[in-house]
Amino acid sequence: MPVQRVFRLCTNECILRKSPEYSTISGLSSEAGTVDATAGRGVDGDEGFSMTEVRHDLNGSKHDFTPTYNNRWPDRYLRAHRQLDYIIPQQAKSVFEPLIERCMQARQKTRLKIIDVGCSYGINASLLSHRISLDELYVEAAPRTGVLSTRDIDKHRAYFTDRPRRGDLSIIGLDPSKRAVEYAMRAGLIEAAVTSNLEHQDISDAEAELIRDADLIISTGCIGYVTDRTFRRLYTATAASRPWVASFVMHPFTYSAIAETLTGFGLATQEMPELLQRQRRFSTQKEKRVILNAMKMSKMDDRFERSTSYIYASFHLSVPTGIPVG
Fold first, then answer.
1. Where does 34-87 have alpha helices with state H?
2. pLDDT per residue over 233-265, tens digit each?
3. How far apart are CA 34 and CA 281, in angstroms?
4. DSSP strands (E only) in the chain
């Protein structure tokens, strides 16, 4: 049976339950709009596609950040994401922090090992481990003036080590973008990394040993690029410790195949409408049109996207069946 306990996340009392739709929306009056950002824009393509498998690039209509994903330094990535007000890491922090406390209590631990799927340059790790905001990272990525735009790794490390840091998290990154992951390690943001592409290959024995005792698996922006194939291989390597899984899924991508995979490992997955969050702005009118069309075909509630200039992400929590949370 799914978990039915009530617990507090952020300022909400959220009942863990399966829900096919999002909560009712009221009072939204923002004018829809778009941002014309040129960094990393993808090639326009056919707007028609089958919802049996939504391509990660929405047939070329989704904004393409790929040129920023695998560099030695994070500033280009941060500037490209700032242009579209990419805020899901900051929004997710307010959800993950209380969830981490609940996870510690339920697992009776004082230190958690967290796997960040799609960790890239360690953005989630920096926000969760340090007293720092995403806006501050964006400021420090400014050309010529920002610490994170320099090519001096000692300055990058000092920027983070000078901030108050919690010592009860061990964060392991998972991302095939090896240069980005190497930066996250050199900057001291993650302790270790898995760089095997689990969409196409099994995890190595050495990498499996790194994560076998994981407590929590998180993701904020990778679903679509990452599918149930990655989660099947990842959870196979961690199944002995039965980690919780907490994922934000950008619309119009769905979580059903991953949830079904996790069910096979004895986890109950709940979508929590109360924790729907902004991901980023639409990059073009075409991207907005294509995403709204995909959401309509999937029978998703698209009123947030229609009423604002933002794409939203749904929150899904998977815990071992029978485990009380709260």
1. 75-83
2. 999 999 999 999 999 999 999 999 999 999 999
3. 7
4. 6-9, 12-15, 112-117, 169-174, 192-194, 216-219, 244-250, 267-271, 277-281, 310-320
